[in-house]
Amino acid sequence: KRLGAGSFGEVTLGEWLGSPVALKTLNEQNGSADLSGSSTKEFLKELRLLADLSHSKIVRFLGVCASPPCIVLDFYSHGSLDNVLHVQKAAITYGQVLSIAQDVALGMRFLHHRDILHRDLKPQNILIDKGLGARIADFGLAKTLVKTGVSEEGLTGTVPYMAPEILARQPYSFPVDVYAFAILLNEMIASERP
């Protein structure tokens, strides 16, 4: 069963040791022997980053398969926050909004303390478990900051969640994730896309 798709491949439902898992697979045309393609580089970068992250508010990395190239992740039964808000149109209470927001904030704090910018924080990249707990996912655009703490990567992310400094192509840092978090929080409260 197809759960979603991204720039380098798709996410499907699989099974591992009798439990459902999410398989993030590199497209075959992107997964050729040429490992220099941008999709392959993005896939490998996310794999390295996820393998190094262990936190209750970050999607759990379970393993990797070589053929076809895929990342094995925990499966979250409600899918993304976007699915909960805009497909299921679930009526979530303010208490649940605050709980989800707290989970995302704790995940962001963990990432930022490790000098990692997510750079694409949005409802599609927040996964929701059966207890409505939230986990940050999709680290394809994440970046580890160098000692200066400033990135000059240019336009990266999803426009409605981009901070003004990214849109203006100015140097940016951790506040861009905080800006995206504020837009996400507003979307949960208003139940409308930005």
TrEMBL record:
Residues 1-194 form the Protein kinase domain. Pfam families: PK_Tyr_Ser-Thr. ATP binds at K24. It comes from the Eukaryota. PROSITE patterns: PROTEIN_KINASE_ATP, PROTEIN_KINASE_DOM, PROTEIN_KINASE_ST. GO terms for molecular function: ATP binding; protein serine/threonine kinase activity. SMART domains: S_TKc. Signal peptide: none annotated. Keywords: ATP-binding, Kinase, Nucleotide-binding, Serine/threonine-protein kinase, Transferase. Belongs to the protein kinase superfamily. This is Protein kinase domain-containing protein.
